[in-house]
Design brief:
The chain contains seven helices and eleven strands. By secondary structure, it is α/β, with parallel strands linked by helices.
Length: about 260
């Protein structure tokens, strides 16, 4: 697969590096850095594009400015791309209305687009979570999502000690967070693994938005963290632990020594 990634800053650069480090053999990952400053309305996209761009099957748009969305259709034409992934990890970078416009522009030139919110919700068949889930059918995007998107682990647990022996990544997040979490889970107790996965995710750090999102009534960083924790929870499900609870209000009686013979 030939992939062109559009970047503007650290968010995109980290994803490009992870894709290059862990993409399957035969994939080519190219990067085009868009201008950092773009106007709100772009009448002539060609004025902001280079003279040539590499051919691509897939465009991954990681702009940190809404203006990038207005460049994507022209980039798709020039690269002969068949599909676009435009993740929404920060809504101010790609507002909902603009995402709808971009989908329409691309549909008009025969290019399929998906808008996973957050990026790590992307699977081979759908993206987003809960009632916001969106199903899609596109071979190019599905091929990408077999390797990068919704994290997928294979966790090996020692049944006797209930310790994680190994956490292997079957599908990484595009930013590489899943690999970071997997490396940190080795040696963790099963009881602590969900909490630890959440802390590892948070300290990667995730670059998703920390403001409350209107769709989820939660931060996208929290939504992303829950995706990772739920995957870990599913993997450790075969290893239930026994917990003992003291009934509420109960006070343990102090130990009483047996009376001595001369008392």
């Amino acid at each position: 697969m030939q992939i062109l990634v559009i970047t503007q800053g650290e968010y995109g650069r980290r994803i490009v590096q992870n894709l290059r480090d862990h993409a399957p053999n035969g994939w080519r990952v190219e990067e085009w850095q868009a201008p950092v400053s773009l106007p709100l309305v772009i009448d002539y996209p060609e004025e902001y594009l280079p003279d040539s761009l590499p051919a691509a099957d897939l465009i991954v748009s990681l702009g940190e400015n809404p203006g990038v969305a207005e460049l994507v259709p022209e980039i798709a034409k020039r690269t002969a791309a068949r599909a676009v992934i435009a993740p929404i990890d920060r809504p101010e970078w790609l507002p909902k209305g603009l995402a709808r416009q971009l989908a329409g522009w691309l549909q008009g030139i025969g290019v399929h687009a998906v808008f996973p919110k957050p990026f790590c919700s992307l699977t081979e068949t759908h993206y987003n979570v809960g009632r916001h889930r969106v199903d899609y059918d596109d071979e190019v995007i599905s091929d990408f999502a077999r390797h990068f998107g919704h994290p997928r682990f294979v966790i090996t647990v020692d049944a006797e000690s209930k310790m994680i022996v190994e956490a292997r990544v079957e599908r990484d997040t595009a930013c590489g967070c899943a690999r970071h979490v997997a490396e940190g889970l080795a040696g963790a107790k099963v009881d602590d693994s969900e909490f630890k996965a959440g802390m590892l995710h948070h300290h990667y750090p995730c670059l998703a938005a920390m403001g409350i999102d209107d769709d989820f009534a939660d931060t996208l960083m929290h939504v992303s963290g829950n995706i990772t924790k739920e995957e870990v929870k599913e993997q450790i499900r075969p290893y239930p632990t026994v917990r003992y609870f003291t009934p509420g209000g109960r006070v343990e009686e102090p130990a009483v020594s047996a009376p001595k013979d001369d008392d």
